[in-house]
Amino acid sequence: METVYSDDHRLQDGKSELIDGKLLPCFEMPRRADMILARVRAVGLGPVVAPDAHGRAPIERVHDAGFLRFLETAWDAWLAAHGAYDALPLVWPTRGMRQREPEAIDGKLSYFAIDAGTPITAGTWRAATTAVDVALTGAARITAGARAVFSLCRPPGHHAGADTYGGYCFLNNAAVAAQALRDAGAARVAILDVDYHHGNGTQGIFYARDDVLFTSIHGHPAQEFPFFLGYDDETGEGRGTGYNANFPLRWGAGWEQYAEALAAACARIVELGADALVVSLGVDTFEGDPISHFRLRGEDYPRIGRAIAGLALPTLFVMEGGYAVEEIGVNAVAVLTGFEGD
Questions:
Q1: 293 carries an active-site annotation
Q2: How far is CA 131 from the centre of its chain?
Q3: 178 C-beta neighbours (distance < 10 Å), count
Q4: Are 208 and 240 in contact (CB under 8 A)?
Q5: What is the CATH number of the domain that holds 227?
Q6: What are 183-222's pLDDT values in tens digits?
Q7: Do residues 333 and 304 touch, judged by C-beta distance below 8 A?
Q8: What is the pLDDT at residue 114?
Q9: Shortest CA distance to 174 belongs to which of 226, 229, 212?
Q10: Which residues are CB-contacts of 271 (< 8 A; sequence separation ≥ 6)?
Q11: Global pTM?
């Protein structure tokens, strides 16, 4: 299996995030991707290649133009207003407030962000756009006939909506790749999100569409970030009714519960049919993950890969979360080797 990777991910290197009422060092760090790449090479998964440049147009197929202008200019505006430290939002336009983009950079951050855990830095725009190129290069390989490709994206993407960022995500790598597969001729694309956290951004982007099926197994939104999406009664709207399937699980879920949800998600993909599959690959379901509450063990990750292989679809794996840094490479690559037949 080919891995697409770029060192540009290191340009996203935030110093702190607001989590659990504390300002702490970022859990989403460059070392995550470094550990995965080292494991890819250690097991001989396959060649590691650099991404091709795809430009802005594929991103604009998914993301709002005004949002992209904000992301591209946010650091310079923050630097001019405050200085060279991480940009984080201050207040949110919640119920009863107007949804109108402010002029000041502090207001813009608050308007476009969903949390205070996703710092914008000097290198954020380049890192995020390169991550999209990593995903798009993988999608192009799938279109050209590859059975499977691993796009080692960082920063991750599945929390980024059409015009919002957060959850360590700026641009939605998996969504842009799925749209690219559609534009290249796939009649329907399925997305399977196995990250611990619900892919709220991906769901929102495709919620009213019947050409991209979104399925997700994740921590229950009554208990877990992002809290406000991911319930099992969210099934799509309009033409997209029936093309969104959430499988939320409560804290403490282990392999038995997870395997049942995975089987149901795979059955849904088979039922509705697809020409290609995009997997939002998060391994923060691991029992040792510092910000998650599932209980999957190392031996469970090849099982996930084998279940995905059973769908017999051209498959693009797009890296998302996983914050047990010492184990992230082993667990992520175990999914891939399980898919390949170990």
A1: no
A2: 11
A3: 31
A4: yes
A5: 3.40.800.20
A6: 999 999 999 999 999 999 999 999 999 999 999 999 999 9
A7: no
A8: 98
A9: 212
A10: none
A11: 0.98
Number of domains in the chain: 1
Give the active site residue among 9, 54, 158, 159. Answer: 159
SS3 268: helix
Residue for token digits 């749209």?
Answer: 179
Q: Is residue 149 part of a domain?
A: yes
With respect to residue 227, please indicate whether it lies within any of the assigned structural domains: yes
Q: What is the pLDDT of residues 127-162, one digit of tens each?
A: 999 999 999 999 999 999 999 999 999 999 999 999
The whole domain housing 134 covers 2-63+122-340
284 domain residue, yes or no: yes
User: Which secondary structure element, helix H or strand E, spans residue 214, and what is its range?
Assistant: strand 212-219
Among candidate residues 140, 153, 119, 157, the one with its CA nearest the CA of residue 276? 140
**Cα–Cα nearest to 269, from 311, 327, 222:** 311
pLDDT at 342 over 90: no
Q: What is the pLDDT of residues 249-298, one digit of tens each?
A: 999 999 999 999 999 999 999 999 999 999 999 999 999 999 999 999 99
- Within a domain: 271: yes
Sole residue written with tokens 């990250």: 195
